[in-house]
Amino acid sequence: MHSDKAPWGLRLAAWGGLLFLHFPILIILLYAFNTEDAAFSFPPRGLTLKWFTVALARPDVLDAISLSLQVACLATLIALVLGTLASAALYRRSFLGKESLSLVLILPIALPGIITGIALLSAFRSLGIEPGVFTIVVGHATFCVVIVYNNVIARLRRTSQSLIEASMDLGADGWQTFRYIILPNLGSALLAGGMLAFALSFDEIIVTTFTAGHERTLPIWLLNQLSRPRDVPVTNVVAMLVMLVTMLPILGAYYLTRGGDAVAGSGK
Amino acid sequence: MTPLRTLSNVLYQRPNLYLALLLVTPLGWFGAIYLGSLLNLLWQGFYTFDDFTMAVTPTLTLANFAALFNPSNFDIIVRTVTMAVAVSLASAVLAFPIAYYMARYTRGKTKAFFYIAVMMPMWASYIVKTYAWTLLLAKGGVAQWFTQQLALDGLLQAILGIPGVGGSTLSTSHLGRFLVFVYIWLPFMILPIQAALERLPPSLLQASADLGAKPLQTFMQVTLPLSIPGIAAGSIFTFSLTLGDFIVPQLVGPPGYFIGSMVYAQQGAIGNMPMAAAFTLVPIVLIALYLAVVKRMGAFDAL
What we know:
The complex is a heterodimer.
Chain A: H1 8-31, H2 50-56, H3 59-90, H4 98-110, H5 113-127, H6 133-158, H7 161-169, H8 174-203, H9 206-211, H10 218-227, H11 232-257
Helix pairs in contact in A: 1-11, 2-11, 3-6, 3-8, 3-10, 4-6, 6-8, 7-8, 8-11, 10-11
Chain B: H1 3-13, H2 15-44, E1 48-50, E2 55-57, H3 63-67, H4 71-105, H5 108-123, H6 126-137, H7 142-149, H8 153-161, H9 174-198, H10 202-210, H11 215-244, H12 247-251, H13 259-270, H14 273-296
Antiparallel strand pairs in B: 1-2
Helix pairs in contact in B: 2-14, 4-9, 4-11, 5-9, 9-11, 10-11, 11-14, 13-14
């Protein structure tokens, strides 16, 4: 049997791996405060907050932020409704095609985003729908559903069936049981799923490049900046903001679903 | 009785109606929008694209799929698949010690810390992570500073000189692109391996030791085989995500199309949607084949 202390080589590999995973993120955090105009040099010559003011005064940045927030909110809302309905339908009863339905729900994140993106684009073109906010939301909602679905179905499976039976035995009807037993039980799973879906949508770029038309979400704005490196400091500040918006929900979701088998982010 | 109550009672007595009502919206969304779009796309793969007029006509042909086997197109497929395989292997090698340490040597607070420390970079913005690497690998950037500090300049130049691996600078080399891919998909490999190792009963390891196996033998003959489903599950992500990526190949590494960037270029600049559709079939078929293989390795039980 293993002793409780890990061999030093293993320890080094594990902690070194963590460092590798976090180093680029730390670099982004550092460079957002860089004083130079061309922020490629390392180590930075000095630190400043002035680029935050510059970045947040740029109309193109603000437009992209507001579009991304709008899209993420709408996509999350649709995903919450569809994901909850699907998990309520799939968690207990078995019926013909149940397996294939759960497979279809997972496909948009299991297949590379480029497939979802180009499929939606070609469908929109065939139907004569102009790409815009609406098409971005449709794309995002499609791959966000599975995140909510995973969280809610895990919670439903852990909710003891006897609780529901007890409620019914005590005279509650279906609606009361849903309102006072099932919904409070699902609350934090819905919140966690919603936060993850929001983070996923806020950051999505691959599907979005196909469905966005001329609209620019924040990730697309960032990508355009990269191919035309004009104002690196502003890009750095926006990169840091996007990083935070996508990382913080994972902390929240973790604390909301802690102590269960619901691996909040299993499969992005 | 309020109408809501009456409705809920009716639904309770008719479970099939209840199920149908629950399913109609998600089924409609995924059936019409998602599957409908996919089928529409594959159908367009049979359309004809006229090279001279740059127009798409709905005359059915197999030419697009046949064109995938042209040397230049086939090169793209081979290049992408090679990268996807290399990235999956490297991710497995890097992920294993982290997952093993998490599963065997951490508990309570430390385990939670490791878990979050792996999840955060996994969820952190994809485009920002890629951007961070362009900063790291750039001329005069962090990577160069470190190699200079450690006096490894010569070694780096030697590695960059290897054909097929190197390139003129780190940020335009295959090696740089490979590093970025491994970095971005690594967390997707760590978590399934960790989950597989957590399920490994300690009594098996005790039994192996009691029967006289040395630690290395136990590792090779008990731990590693039982973690294969986890590795296979993780490789589904690393393989499939690398196969379809077109942002990283565009930003880091030498010129030359990947499947993703080819699809993007065909539908965008060239306007050849049928060829783009045909190219999209490649990752779908490869991933389906791959899933069939890893399913036999038990990957689906480890997801």
